[in-house]
Amino acid sequence: MQTLPFRAVVSDLDGTLLNANHVIGEFTIETLEKLAKKNVDIILATGRNHTDVASILTKVNIEKAVMITSNGARAHDAQGNLLYSNSLPEEIAFEIMNMPFDTQNICLNSYQDDGWFINVDVPQLAKYHKDSGYTYQVINFAQHHGRGTEKVFFIGKSLQHLQPLEKELRAKFGDVTSITYSTPMCLEVMNKNVSKATALAQVVSSRDYGLAQCIAFGDGMNDVEMLSEVGKGCVMGNADPRLVASCPQLEQIGLNAHESVASYLRATFGLI
User: Do you know which InterPro entries this protein is assigned to (predicted)?
Assistant: First the structure.
């Protein structure tokens, strides 16, 4: 019997497993299905909401895939069963949602058990969700609630617009939250100790292998812990430069636009 180099493949989505159009390519689909037939676990680990990710999984014929979503605040199996959950405390979530910020250059969002909420209509966000049709509700956060909050996130016109807000968030909530960037223009706040790595450790705790038997791929600062704690972490060629600087020991591979994760996996696992 062939010995597998890794027992699980763990991958971020946007900028990593998905192509430049934010969809999963046919070459990647075929690669993941070949791996699943070899009993390699497929685990998607993303900042996206699980409803959104579930629609991507419908394109891939894998029954046992796992979705780690909202940067590790939730984990579900392919059938939608909740495996792990870690929400922001309601009061803290509401307080973060109602912090003052530069509304001309930043928009406020939350992923919660009852949906995706935003403070202003941003039609260009639809390009990330055209496959799933997952969309937001425009609301007044002052009249909203903090229940079941997976994450609160701020999308800025540039990193420079977000940095003063990041500084304020860390000063006020740094000891009770996890704060990271999923892209250079998306600042995200989850409950303390929430990360893709923490959720992944929970998922594999019920398996007959550990993090050392996982290979992972990512492109953002929200991937640092996951890439550092698995047996093999790979950084995308199109990654946030801060990720490359944070993880200089990790191998850098090709671009997501070229479906480089699939190519790397085929070479690693000897797939034809």
Answer: Cof (IPR000150), HAD-like_sf (IPR036412), HAD-SF_hydro_IIB (IPR006379), HAD_sf (IPR023214)
What residues make up the domain containing 122?
A: 90-191
- How many contiguous H segments (helices) and E segments (strands) does the chain have? 8, 14
DSSP for 216-243, written as a single string: EEE-SGGGHHHHHHSSEEEE-TT--HHH
Task: Give the whole-angstrom CA distance, residue 82 versus residue 150.
Answer: 13
Whether residues 115 and 238 fall in one domain: no
pLDDT tens digits, residue range 125-168?
877 777 677 889 999 999 999 999 999 999 999 999 999 999 99
Please give the structure tokens belonging to residue 172: 């006020």
Are 77 and 116 in contact by the 8 Å Cβ rule? The answer is no
d(CA 49, CA 190): 13
Work out the burial of residue 241: count CB atoms within 10 Å of its CB; fewer than 13 is exposed, 13-18 middle, 19 or more buried: exposed
Sign of CA dihedral 201, 113, 56, 48: negative
Among residues 12, 41, 52, 219, which one is catalytic? Answer: 12
Q: Is 71 left (phi over 0), alpha (psi -120 to 50) or beta?
A: left
How far apart, in Å, do the first and last CA atoms of the chain sit? 18
What is the tally of structural domains in the chain?
A: 2
Predicted model pTM: 0.95
* CATH label of the domain that carries residue 238: 3.40.50.1000
| 12 catalytic residue (yes or no) | yes
Asked if 74 contacts 50 with a C-beta cutoff of 8 angstroms, the reply is yes
* Residue 147, domain CATH: 3.30.1240.10
**Rg, C-alpha atoms of the chain:** 18
